[in-house]
Amino acid sequence: MINTRRRSTAVLIGVLAATTLTGPAPARAEGEEPTEPPKVELVLDVSGSMRANDIDGRSRISVAQQAFNEVVDALPEETQLGIRVLGATYRGEDKKQGCLDTQQIVPVGPVDRTAAKAAVATLRPTGFTPVGLALRSAARDLGTGTTARRIVLITDGEDTCAPPDPCEVARELAAQGTKLVVDTLGLAPDAKVRKQLLCIATATGGTYTAAQSADELTGRIKQLVERAKDTYTAAPTVVTGRGACADAPLLAPGVYADREAFSEHRWYRVPVRPGQELRASVSVALDRPVNPDHAVLLRATATDGRELVRGVDAGSGRTDVVSAGLRWSPTEDDGASPSPSATDAPVPATTVCLVVSNAFAPRPGTRAEPGMPVELTIDVVASSPAPAAPDLGRGWVLLLLLTLAGLVTGLVVGLLTRWWVATWRTN
Do 359 and 265 touch, CB atoms closer than 8 A? Predict the structure, then answer.
């Protein structure tokens, strides 16, 4: 999603074709180039509060309409765009009916710019704010496939119709395994709105931004639509890790998505041949409130339980993701067979067990299900030899150079000092 968006983290990516293996075929991540165009749906809040005149002295809806027109004009030709609105048609007081008020006014596909701008121009702020329902509907509009989809939600208020709670809807969408990213844009500097929009974005690996001017809103929407091309990658293959190595899924190089419960251990298997190096990384998205002390651990073990290497926790540059990674090459000390010569029969691969563990604890009232999003990246490459230490010859040369530099420096300093003393005495 998990992206990107998707989706920037301490992830070691470099998908290679898997070598032919004896035994059961490993699961494979999608390796073909995407053939679908990038797809984006803009979701606009047209509820009554959008009438407020507090953005550059203009109403929020007029600023949003201008931004939409400029984005439609600048839309990359290969991008398919859809537009959905919420709170745009029902003018009554019946909340039950008003909370069903969401429509797709431009279907996802190649855009008819004239028709799209005309549809947006007729919008007038009207009703309630069913954000959760609109997000769920937008996900259906975008459909499923092998590539990432992006929703850009523009709103000035929090959902007034929950359930469904929009944050829970975002987690539900992320749990479906499709690469769906929701970016949120807030048009009002309200702490409750910010908290809800940040939660929606975090759950799907998206971003949250507050737009306080027409230029900010236009620029940010354009940036997010453009980003759809950058995050236009194959969605991770969905796998289910096991509670032990023996029945864990066998993985080929690729990117995989899973879900892990609080304080759980999940196992996966990777075949590694002599002369190869395993590179693996894992990222867990914090899509709900957790206690501040937490960590993610990635370990590689042998099938008999011996630990081969332990990964190092790494900050990913994002506050909503915790990552860890490791590298390992088989040696005879690990029980691996020696590398074959050109005339030898193929040497069986060593099965490495990867264990993803987390030390997360939910805050009071936080739902435990579904598990937190996990993205696991596997790569198997040719072993990298350890860098050789400098030999004795190189060491003596370096020592000689340092000695000569010291002598020259001392000589120059001495001459300058004698000249300065002689000059001072003469004066």
Answer: no
